[in-house]
Specification:
Order of helices and strands of chain A: EEHEHEHEHEHEEEHHHHHHHEEH
Helix content of chain A: 40-55%
Distance between the termini of chain A: 51 Å
Radius of gyration of chain A: 20 Å
Shape of chain A: globular
Oligomer: homodimer
Chain lengths: 362, 362
């Protein structure tokens, strides 16, 4: 039985857009005609994704003038210099204010393409076509765009909501297992912070998700996007609530930085970070004692790492402070009150964090 | 008698900010304390303006951590590569999300600094401290920021409203006469499109304005900012009304491009453009026959050029089409119905434009 696509509507006040999730969307000319505005299109992709999906997408966009810009693959290309290449492509292909940039790829293409669209002629439409699980459940939704600077990730960017997000689950067939699991880490995150039912479902259905069962993928991605859209709709610019989406990320960023961004994928570092954040939540008495073990077990069942690298507690602490730009006092972290309920706080005993770091980072 | 500063309040819905106009503002520590948020400040300026005013401004900001970034002077430095230098300065000086960028200079510094502030950490506060008449009456107000691309001016940018605009009229003392007159061109524009009383006042008071009389300057700048703020408040992103601010600019851009951006200052090209737009308005019967001569006389009284360069009517037409990205049909221009009332239209006989261009461009 064919799995039907599902559509989530995002509303951030000044912008509304649909997220389509399902198989076969890249070839669905009728849907693409509705979702993608503008006669002139620049499809931005990379050397890994373009050979697999660019022709399929282009063939389903009859009657448009289509230009292509294919970048080298990899996070190290998410720079202002690469954005300049995209601006050049937009100018050379005579794209004007009613043109649309289509970002076909993973998080790097989505963040970079969204940023280029935000700045070109002070803002043209951007349609996100994420082809990794991480991009489908996280970076393509919410309007955060940007590029890295040697001084930090995403230091240069813009808030620019997409005109539409089209998440074709068929594209996940080509995703390496390790990247699939890293995407699942973010889905587990949504369960932890906002939806105990999703967490329960993941405990039961993880084998189907790992087996890329289309129905399971559509369910998990749809629910994740609904949660993220709900949070972003209430707090687009992260004045408060949106910060709960960073559950596991303060620990995770420190782990990524301590290992020079080479040993772990982002989702893997966040997996370890979620375990630590859950343990801190229980240690200070906010979360029931049995919950961290459930979270750790679910992460392990997804094939994700749960043991922190032994980089030293002092190193971990200073990297957490740097990530949060906190020179003195407690680092703000996202903690759990229960499965499905999170809060952002710097109000916890510093000693508990120190002990936790000592146990896990050595 | 000392001239008192005046304050205009801008309201674009999602952002509100004050514009202060008057003498002595750069040394007014109390006002600066109210207007400039943040403990950490990066003052962006250029090699012409910094030696004159940076120390005065810094001395009036006690208790802040102040870093400086001084760029070479000139429009050719308004590029993405120069924006990258500003990002580097923000990172190197450890500026975080609640830091403020102060743009101390003319239009290039204001546009570039505004753009850098818009993108750094997805948006930090920017205070505009314009030191040229053109920047005080035009570019510092309204939130349009950006840099040039070889393919066109301001092709890369953002809408980013400033936290405050501080227009110290004392800084105009160091402005070359030619730049003063180029700024007056934009003030005449506001009279033409929105305020017959301002136009009348300019006809009477032009000698005082050219003599840099403080009271006259404060009046002309304040009224100009009020008009621009009123237009921008109703149409931030130029969906309609804001386009009337481009009176004279479609002709002016063609004149600048035809002379390789070397022969005329922007305001000078706009002066010629306003004369032509007024003559087209009268030629098609929209504007009373005597008005173009009044506008031409006022521009001449300000020492501005009013004769178009003889670059050829065909060249002028193709550059106007390119500026407006119109391949076929009529070019949209801003025309006058009367002094103080403008409209944007492509609904006029093409033959009238052709004849006008033939007369003036040869």
């Amino acid at each position: 039985m064919a799995v039907a696509p599902r559509t989530i509507r995002v509303d951030v006040g000044h912008a509304r857009y649909p997220i389509d999730v399902g198989p076969g969307l890249l070839g669905d000319a009728q849907r693409l005609a509705e979702r993608i505005p503008g006669k002139d299109l620049l499809i931005l992709s990379n050397t890994t994704v373009a050979p697999l999906y660019l022709a399929r997408l282009g063939a389903a966009l009859p009657g448009r003038r289509i230009a292509e810009c294919v970048l080298p693959d990899g996070e190290r290309h998410k720079t202002l210099a690469t954005a300049a290449i995209v601006f050049d492509a937009l100018v050379e292909n005579r794209m004007n204010r009613d043109a649309t940039l289509i970002a076909l790829g993973g998080g790097v293409i989505g963040d970079l393409g969204g940023f280029a669209a935000a700045c070109y002629q002070r803002g043209i439409a951007c349609v996100q076509v994420p082809t990794t699980l991480l991009a489908q459940v996280d970076s393509s939704v919410g309007g955060k765009t940007g590029v890295n600077h040697p001084g930090g990730k995403n230091l240069i960017g813009a808030f620019h909501q997409p005109a539409a997000v089209i998440a074709d689950t068929d594209t996940l067939a080509s995703l390496p297992d390790r990247e699939l699991r890293a995407g699942i880490a973010e889905i587990i995150k949504y369960g932890c912070i906002a939806d105990a039912a999703l967490f329960d479902w993941l405990e039961r259905q993880m084998p189907r998700l790992l087996g890329r069962d289309p129905e399971a993928l559509v369910h998990a991605i749809t629910r994740s996007c609904e949660i993220k859209a709900g949070v972003v709709g209430r707090d687009e610019r992260e004045s408060g609530l949106r910060a709960i989406l960073n559950f596991g990320h303060t620990f995770g960023h420190a782990i990524e930085a301590a290992t020079a961004y080479e040993r772990y994928l982002h989702g893997e570092a966040v997996a370890i970070g979620m375990r630590l954040a859950a343990e801190l939540s229980a240690r200070i008495g906010l979360l029931a004692a049995g919950v961290p073990a459930r979270i750790t077990a679910l992460l392990a069942a997804a094939g994700l790492p749960v043991e922190a690298p032994r980089v030293g507690a002092g190193r971990a602490m200073s990297l957490m402070r740097m990530d949060k730009k906190v020179l003195a006092g407690a680092v703000r972290v996202v903690l759990l009150r229960s499965l499905g309920a999170a809060e952002v706080t710097a109000d916890y005993p510093g000693k508990d964090l120190e002990e936790l770091l000592a146990e896990h980072f050595g």
